[in-house]
What does this fold into?
Amino acid sequence: MRIVSGMRPTGKLHLGHYFGVIRNWVRLQGEHETLFFIADWHALTTAYRKVSELERNIKEVMIDWITLGLDPEKSVLFIQSRVKEHAELHLLLSMITPKSWLEWNPTYKDMKYNLLRIRDLQIQFRGGLRDVVREFIGMIPYKVEDFERFEERLLEDLSETFISALFEGEIERDILKRLNVSKKEFYDTDTYGFLGYPVLQAADILIYKGEGVPVGEDQLPHIELTREIARRFNSLYGELFPEPQALLTETPRLPGTDGRKMSKSFGNAIFFSDTREEVSTKVMKMFTDPQKLRKNDPGRPDICPVFSYHRIFSEKGTVSAIDRDCRAGKLGCVDCKKMLLENLEAFLEPFREKRKEVEARVEDVEEIFEEGSARAREMARSTMEKVRDLMNLR
It folds into this structure.
């Protein structure tokens, strides 16, 4: 089976990336034909204002992929933007994809809904400030030539400052939690690119005639949309694309150090590039059961992020003992974290050392991805020749 998958370059990889994606990719590359790409074009759907970080983030992902076991002898490893045929197929598929298919995409619907709620907050803020701004303008010791225009400018600037402060955590952080929005970039995603990114995703898969795509349950709608686009193309122009199957992957629950989803933007991630001292600091500051304030208080391991880590990094006997002693009030959180740190470090140290070696030969890593991109281009060009032929685009 030919398997295709990608990852947006957001910088150095953390434990969540490994257990959620990379570990499964490493297993799949030993069993199937695999193509894995760094999706730098997809990164622009939300981070188009931060292109200055893109090159560095791509390099960090390349280093971590090799560190964590992706093998160029087993997989085609490449960078999306170096295969321009992705963009051409994206354009052609966008011509035949109904807009309603994209608007009903759950990711787009959820984000659109949350963005509208944020804008409602902004409008409320503006309304509440209008009298204050008018009073302020009246106090200015200069003649205001265009009162309404000046008033609107102040209201606009203040409301934008309000939104920025909201995303920076300077104002009631629970608001963003309720809206499920963590990044300022998402406030700026009411774009054609964000609406149409599932079509680019379909092009990424179909251009290599991918047969399987490893995904989590939340990505199933995207794969189904890719299948729909493949069916529509085949029906209009002739059979070319297989309908890729979603390869559901079970992944262990590994929260961030604060109990939320592990994310760089939340500041709760443990990275493979972290030093032992950095990991130690993060582990010892991890959230625990809020009701377990003292060692002899009975704990609830099932809701404790530290215990979630023990399930993965500690031996079964140790996990059972921690579960028992925590519930009985015989194990304090500090000792529990120290045990976790020892076991977590035993897992991280080999990767940390390998990462240093890979980083020292970064030119070789870049060459791996250059060669992989060349191999991917050859495959993509072959597909596009057939696409153009079927669509009479010679």
